[in-house]
Amino acid sequence: MGNTPLGWAAENGHEGVVELLLSRHDIDPNKAGEGGQTPLFRAARGGHEGVVKMLLRREDVDANKSDDEGETPLCCALRKRHERVVKSLLGRDDIDPDKGEGDDCPTALSLGVYFRNHGVVRMLLEREDVNPNKLGVNDNTPLGIGAFDGDEEMVKMLLERDDVNPNDTDEGGRTPLWWAAASGEEVVVKMLLERDDVNPEKPDDRGQTPLCCAAENGSDGVVKVLLGREDVNPNGPDNNGNTPLIYAVWGHHEGVVEILLREDQVKPDESNDDGRTPLSCAAASGHTGIIKMLLGRDDVNPDTPDKDGRTPLWWAARSCYLGVMEIFIERDDVNPNTPDKDGKTPLHHAALYGHVKKVRMLLKRDDINPNKPDNNGETALSCAARRGHTQLVALLQHHTASTHSTD
Fold first, then answer.
1. Using CA atoms, how far apart are residues 96 and 129, in angstroms rounded to an integer?
2. Lesser CB count within 10 Å: N end or C end of the chain?
3. 3-state SS, residue 101
4. CA distance 319 to 129
5. Residue pLDDT, tens place only, 67-77
6. Rounded to an integer, what distance in angstroms lies between the CA atom of residue 359 and that of residue 361?
């Protein structure tokens, strides 16, 4: 379907042509062209205020008629940031500013918040026919959008509406507080927490609380603010048992780890559903500063295996972090022979992946057993031979021979 003469004139802002065409009795001012876009929609998209006003003066013009994508002239003008056109459209008594929902067809309010148009948002919030909690851009609430963006003025305006629900969530179950915590917006977090009706512990659909989210993103200030609340659980896990401390470890956020470890209620050795402790996660990711912090605690077991039998030393041997492995090897309370569920020890994995320096390091331990077989009867020497690691085969053969001669 092509465009109409009136549609072309409106799209290009030809006021004289529009006036001439509208004077004809056989012209339908709402007839849509390509994409279901009416002359008013095209004029609004182009920011042609004069044409928009001309069309709006006619009572038979449908100011709310959306295109094939469900977008209204009002939302189109907002998206294009034509503020004067937006104000003209809002002046129509029959305008529906709340038409649309979700990311595919967001409401005018959510678009105004998203584009930080404070004047338009203020106008919309003064209207009783605007629902301030309706999902819009990114399938989020207007307050969630403003909170994530850290727009303090916008958040304040929205919170002044009596019918705003500060705990309403987006499609993923994330509250405005969750979004503010995610983006490290400390001032907005404080603004939200000043309200008695804000739940600081409300998790998203994955079970991730605002504290978990702030810890994951390394937001030291937000973490401190949340921990200052008596109703925030510093160990609150997500659906997979991951605590804020584990999230901070995964993110390599040493400052957040330090803040959490200062809390008396924090359990530094609490494992997730896979049996992984914060230390196990730190060993796998190679953050020596965090490892040393955790090992400095009396209540952290340096040898705790996960559900697959993998100890922090196992993870260090599997990874590429030589310095991390050295930290564990030097500890008497770490057993270098602990096997995983397949019977493979840290030595097996170091030999399997050809890590000569790691094998040398492990062999320095007096209590290492280089002949310990896995569940398939393979020793570390067998693993090295199978992979063709010549230097490791020679090293392990020599160590085995030395062990037997000593015996």
1. 8
2. C
3. strand
4. 58
5. 999 999 999 99
6. 5
> Would you say residue 405 has pLDDT above 90?
no
Express as a percent the part of the chain with pLDDT over 90: 93
- Unique residue bearing structure tokens 């310990």: 372
Residue carrying the six token digits 């609430």: 141
Q: How confident is the model at residue 289 (pLDDT cuts 50, 70, 90)?
A: very high
Side chain identity, residue 162: D
Distances from the Cα of 217 to the Cα of 149, 254, 268, angstroms = 15, 11, 19
User: Average pLDDT for residues 202-231, to the nearest whole number?
Assistant: 97
Q: Is the torsion defined by CA of 360, 364, 365, 369 positive or negative?
A: positive
CB within 8 Å of 202: residues ≥ 6 apart = 167, 169, 175, 177, 178, 209, 210
Quick one: tokens of 47? 């920011």
Nearest of 27, 49, 31, 40 to residue 71 by alpha carbon = 40
Going along the chain from its start, the domains and CATH numbers come out as: 182-301 (1.25.40.20)
pTM of the model: 0.90
> With helix as H, strand as E and coil as C, how does 53-76 read?
HHHHCCCCCCCCCCCCCCCCHHHH
What percentage of the chain's residues is helix, strand, coil (to nearest 5)?
50, 0, 50
Task: Please give the structure tokens belonging to residue 169.
Answer: 């969530």
- Residue 33 φ/ψ region, left for φ over 0, alpha for ψ in the -120 to 50 degree band, beta for the rest: beta
Structure tokens at 254: 């040493």
Per-residue tokens: 286: 């190679």
Mean pLDDT along residues 174-187: 98
Residue with tokens 């678009």: 111
| pLDDT score for 402 | 56
Query: What pLDDT is attached to residue 102?
Result: 73
Tokens (6 digits) for 361:
């390091």
Listed in order, strand segments (DSSP E) in 177-222 are none
